[in-house]
Amino acid sequence: MKNFRSTLVLFIIAALLIGYISLFDKKIKSTEERQRTENELFHVEASDINWLQIKSQSETVVLEKKDNQWKITSPIHVDADERTIDRYLVDLQYLEMRREIPPTELPKEDILKQWGFSNPSLEISFKTSKGKYDLIVGRKTAVSELVYARTSLGSNAPVYLISSSIADSLKKGLDDLRSRVVFHFNPFSVEKCGIRQMSGPSFSDYAVLKKGKQWEIQKPVLARADSTKLEQWFNDLLSLRVDKFVSDDGSNLNQYGLDSPRYQIWVGQSGKKDEDKLLVGNSLSSNSKQVYAKMAANNSVFTLETDMINRLVQNFLDIRDRHVLPAFSEEQVDKIGFQGKNLKLFYIKKGSDWQSEETEKGLANKTKIKDFIETLRNLESQEIKQEQMEIKVYGLDNPEEKIEIEFNPGLTMDKGQKVELYLGKVENGLIYAKNSIEPFVYTLKEEFTKSLPKTPWDWKDLSVMQLDPQEITQWDVSSSLQSFSVKRKEGKLIATGMADTDEEKLKDGLEYLSHLKAVRWIGPQGTELSKPQVKITVHAKKNYILLIGPSLPSGGRLALIEGNPLAFELEESIFRVLTSPQKNPSTLQEAKPQALR
């Protein structure tokens, strides 16, 4: 009981101590906050400021907030840099005095001249809905990093000492405050864009137009544009920043090479009559890494990085879509087929499965179909030939191989259509190709042909038997070495003819036989399985006889279902479970075969 009272007393003391420390800490913070607020020169919120004038000994800049955006209204009308203005207004909001000299302590002599107020280094005026505020900055003090400042030049106004570093940061000129962003547009609103090479050996015009959901090159050739590349080009354009402002009077553009610019980079937006045009002129004589430029809509001449302009031009010239087929999604493909010299295969989508349309009816290997569709989606040309009349040269006048795809309408296509891809001759490791809806000849790596089916069973579904495990009442295994049977008895699997069997292996065997899958289809066999090494008879509503032959170089076993001419490769680990289901300590820790993973 005594220990309990001691513990309780200690607990109460600790709680009181924590409460006192918390209260003391809050009091300190509250005092610091109040002191900081009292030292602020202007008790305003930065977000309430809607007009600003900054006057130095060399220039005066006036800014206004219109429609929640800052604009420079004098000496020129241009956009302001929003981030710079936001930081500037926050500095004004929290501008603190280090010391106040009340009017009664001011010297009798002319302090305007003595402390630098007759010709101030900086004058700042700003407005909120509550009124107008001023800051006049004089000279530095003699003994510390402070400057004299006043909020009014009236005789009854005090003098403040403020940090000289803060005062210096408030000395912003026109070039510091104006926006350096070259282009302002929403990529989703762009309907057309392009580059005109205005000078040089020849005039070139490159233009891209949005048609429906797709981008299309209009000049110099009618072709598909790569939307991904175009999106990156827009991002590069929006990231373009002015390096240095040169002039704002718009006269004598000849000296900058802007009366006849090298390039005109333009963007057209929906709902906007005129295009946004960037004119690019000469390189600077003093610095070849910079070029003169201006927007066509205003007079400001500035400099940009030469490398950035070159990158924008080169990337736009490479905006053409190199995919051999127009953009599509896997979900849009309803039918796919291949026709070769002695092979014709067509597959139709049935729900989530694919089914053969040919004489070899049945499900297709949807993994291979999906992989091939993905290959077609990503198929890009190494080079695009513009010659439209010489398809005979490329072996495409009467192609022996073609791929056919039927699409339904979807996200990337406005309507359903059928597209054929013709394959021509092979040269230097490349195969010529052409689709049925465009006039161009494409060159593909020859290895693309490895993805094409070579036999009617290449894309056949790998399922050999699909049974309900409850259907199987018994299976018999016979070989030259042993014979045994597995039956159901009182809910268990019992093996006869073999001792020391592993019930788990018998269950695995039942699962394998119920959903027997091939590693791959091999094709029709002659006499290789006329004398099989192992014969497994599966008793169900319909009996199946599985014939298993010798090992294959790939590691599996040659096998087929009696009555089906197509042989397949059976996984070796499945073969071992079906033929040797004994308890074997050396194999108990083996990983399960692929079919059960």
Automatic annotation (TrEMBL):
InterPro entries this protein is in? DUF4340 (IPR025641)
One Pfam match, given by its short name, reads DUF4340
DUF4340 domain segment(s): 70-193, 215-399
Q: Which domain of life is it from?
A: Bacteria
Its protein name is: DUF4340 domain-containing protein
